[in-house]
Structures are given as C-alpha cells and as structure tokens.
Automatic annotation (TrEMBL):
Belongs to the acetokinase family. ATP binds at residues 17, 204-208, 279-281, 327-331. Its EC number is 2.7.2.1. Mg(2+). Can also accept Mn(2+). Pfam families: Acetate_kinase (PF00871). Its cofactor is Mg(2+); Mn(2+). Homodimer. The gene is ackA. The keyword DNA-binding does not apply. The active site is at 145 (proton donor/acceptor). This is Acetate kinase. It is found in: Cytoplasm. GO terms for molecular function: acetate kinase activity; ATP binding; magnesium ion binding. InterPro entries: Ac/propionate_kinase, Aliphatic_acid_kin_short-chain, Aliphatic_acid_kinase_CS, ATPase_NBD. It comes from Aestuariirhabdus litorea.
Length: 409
C-alpha cells in the first residue's frame, strides 16, 4: 500500500456514508453522507478540514453518488491518498467470523446472506460493486456487523425450535453492532487496564439498540437475533414480543404477515408507545414537559434494557465493567441513571455528577474510581474499526506475497 489511508463505504438502501480515515491516528480527512438516493432530493453533504459543503444531485443513484465522491476526492487531491477501501456489510452469516479481503467467492457468500438480511445486504453489495468499478486497482475489505458474535456458544445462539431449521435454513441468533462492540470493548480494556480474562456488559443504544456480554474479548451473548428486531425496545422496533402476536393479529385484526412485520419494525418501540417520536431527545423533552406517554415509553425502554443486561450477566463469571455507547448511551444521562438504578443487584453504582457530565472529565468513567464494576461511557467509532481492519488485512496480504528475504549462511 503506497498510502495507509482507508476509504470507508457504508451503503444503505438509499444512502452512502463515506469517510477517508488514517487508520493509525484515526484522523478523518474527509467524511460525508449521500442520502435520499434515487429521489429528486438526493444530495451529498461532506466535511473536510472543518469546512462543510452540500451538493444537490437530483435523482442520483448509488452509481452517480460514488462517481461524485470520487470526483470530490480527486478535486481535493485526496485520490492518491486512498490505500484501500473498507466496506461495512451487515450480515456475514456463519461463514465470516472476522473481516476479510473481498474476492469473487466472498461476494457470492455475501449475496447468499441476502436472504438473512434482505433490507441491508443488497445495499451493501451495491456499494461494493460500485466502488470496485471506480477503484478497480485497490483492495476492498468487508467488515461484518455479525462477525464478532460468531464466538457465541450454541446455548446462546440456538432458538428452542426444531433443530432442522438451524441445519437446513441457518435459523439462529446472529446479533449485530459487532464492529461497535469490538471498538468499545477494546477501549474499555485500555482505559481500565483490564487483564485478558475480563468480563464486560456493553449496551449500544442508538436508533437500533442492543446489548452484549463479552468475555475475554469474545461475544458470549447478545440481544439481537436472526434479525435486528429481537431484544431491546428501539426507536421504531418493538424488541421482544410474544411470537404468537403474528397469529393473534391475523385472526383478530386480519393483519397479513407483512403488516405485522411492518408494525413491529417501523411503527413500534419508542414511537409506537409514545405516539410522538422515535427520537429519545424529543421524548426526554416531552417527558420534562409532563407528557405521560413519553414517560411511559422511556420507562419501558429502561425496564427492558436493565432486564436484558441482567440476563446477559448470567454468561459472565464476574463483571468488570458496564459500557454505554451509541447516540443514547453516549448522551443520555437520564437513561443511564435510570438503567443503573435497576442494576444495583450487579453491584452497579454510579457517580451522579460524572454521569451528568457524560464522563467527560473522568475518561468516560461514570462510577466512582474504586467501584467495581466500573461504568463507562465510550463514544463508539465503527469507521475507525473498519479502517484498522482494512489496513491490517491489506498490509498482511502484502507481507504474505512479498518474497521472503534470502538467507545467508
Ligand atoms: P443510529 O443508530 O441511527 O446510528 P445514533 O447512535 O446516532 O443512531 O442514536 C440516535 C439516538 O440518540 C436518537 O434517539 C437520539 O435522540 C439519541 N440522542 C442523541 N443525543 C441525545 C441526547 N443528548 N440525549 C438523549 N438522546 C440523545
């Protein structure tokens, strides 16, 4: 690799997030988002060296957005700085336990996983194909949301349904947010100087929310399942409900499978409970103004989170730390305090002042220095993790293909 900088592509069905990152220092040279692709209002916003810009691209698709991004990078003299491209891929099935260089076989497997993530993998594939066309001479790497959780034991990943459904159709818990968990758990180890044999609970609380138990660097349990719908209450997703709801709503209300799926994924969670918003900031404000349904939505969010964290703890021999991350985990002292109050059974006890300051002056620590388990707020950085994996894999490949130095006897 002539330059170490990595271009990150995170492709959604109508968006393309990108960033050029130095994988060693973590410095973002440029980052941006192309959104509403395929619509009249398609646009790209990006920031570079503190300058923010916006380009309107009416009707642009992923292909055009990628060409524009390449144009931007060329114009800014950054094209030569791109050493490799790292792609976020949501589902890697059981095949990918870690990030991988992309070749035709890897593409086939990602394509194969589309049935497990029909909303995400097709967009991720478009991102890779478009980027390969524009950057044919560079190495491309896939970093999977599911890979980190492949270390879970069978008791954590199997559902108690006929085993043949696992054998024949790969029905099992996969879990998501793995790149974020890898990042925040490594940061927690550094900050707390924990030994190899450590035990953590991590909660990634954003629009999608999940939690995981991590033992000695490996995921041993997580709340999301076959799809990201399972587990915690989220912005618009219900999290756990009785699976018989499908049946009940079909006979009681004439709902089709699609209607119930849509309701559970898009109209439930904080939005469904509050009838107001899927956004935690809006709900906290409404609650402060006396809105009862906002309060109820927040209470149920916290109840579910605490209950699931306590359940995850049963996969750990002891607890070194609880880590909060994601938009809500990093910013909402309200949610952290209420959740930690419910977890006193795990010895969790936070310092209220540190919590209100989001751990800003205490290296993310919001528990007292001498209290175990520690409670931490760590800002996640999935892009940096993708950049590091990409850099590492490409450097390793270069080392593997270089002839070994001749030995002199
Ligand atoms: P995504 O999962 O889409 O990446 P984020 O991780 O950015 O989402 O999290 C978005 C959530 O974080 C929203 O519910 C938002 O309201 C919440 N959030 C962001 N800042 C705050 C804050 N200061 N207080 C409470 N919630 C916040």
């Amino acid at each position: 690799m002539t330059s170490p900088n990595v271009l990150i592509f995170n492709c959604g069905s109508s968006s393309l997030k990108f960033a050029l990152i130095d994988p060693i220092s973590g410095v973002e040279v440029i980052s941006g988002l192309a959104e509403r692709l395929g619509e009249e209002l398609a646009s790209i916003r990006y920031s570079m060296g503190g300058m923010k810009q916006r380009l309107e691209l009416p009707g642009a698709d992923h292909q055009e957005a990628c060409a524009q991004i390449l144009g931007l990078l060329t114009e800014a003299g950054l094209k030569q700085q791109i050493g490799a491209i790292g792609h976020r891929v949501v589902h890697g099935g059981e095949r990918f336990r870690e990030s991988t260089l992309i070749d035709a076989q890897v593409m086939d497997t990602i394509r194969d996983c589309q049935r497990l993530a029909p909303l995400h993998n097709p967009a991720n594939l478009i991102g890779i194909e478009v980027a390969q066309q524009h950057f044919p001479s560079l190495q491309h790497v896939a970093v999977f949301d599911t890979a980190f959780h492949q270390s879970m034991p069978a008791e954590a990943y199997l559902y108690a349904i006929p085993y043949a459904l696992y054998q024949q159709h790969a029905v099992r818990r996969y879990g998501f947010h793995g790149t974020s968990y890898r990042y925040v758990s490594q940061r927690a180890l550094e900050l707390l100087e924990l030994p190899t044999d450590h035990s953590l609970l991590c909660a990634h609380l954003g629009n999608g929310s999940s939690a995981a138990a991590i033992r000695s660097g490996n995921s041993v349990d997580t709340t999301m399942g076959l799809t990201p719908l399972e587990g915690l209450v989220m912005g618009t997703r219900s999290g756990n409900v009785d699976p018989n709801l499908y049946d009940f709503l079909a006979s009681e209300c004439g709902y089709s499978l699609q209607q119930t799926s849509r309701m559970l994924n898009k109209e439930s969670g904080l939005l469904g409970l509050s009838g107001l918003s899927n956004d935690m900031r809006t709900l906290e404000q409404a609650e402060a103004e006396g809105n009862e349904r906002a309060r109820l939505a927040i209470d149920i969010y916290v109840f579910t989170l605490a209950r699931q964290l306590a359940g995850l703890a049963t996969s750990l021999p002891h607890l070194d730390a609880l880590v909060f991350t994601g938009g809500i985990g990093e910013n909402s002292s309200r949610i952290r305090e209420a959740t930690c109050r419910r977890l006193s059974i795990l010895g969790i006890d936070i310092d209220l002042e540190r919590n209100v300051a989001n751990g800003a002056q205490s290296q993310g620590r919001i528990s007292a220095d001498n209290n175990t388990p520690a409670v931490l707020v760590i800002n996640t950085n999935e892009e940096l993790m993708i950049a590091r994996d990409t850099h590492h894999l490409v450097a390793q490949q270069v080392a593997d293909t270089e002839p070994s130095p001749s030995r002199h006897h």
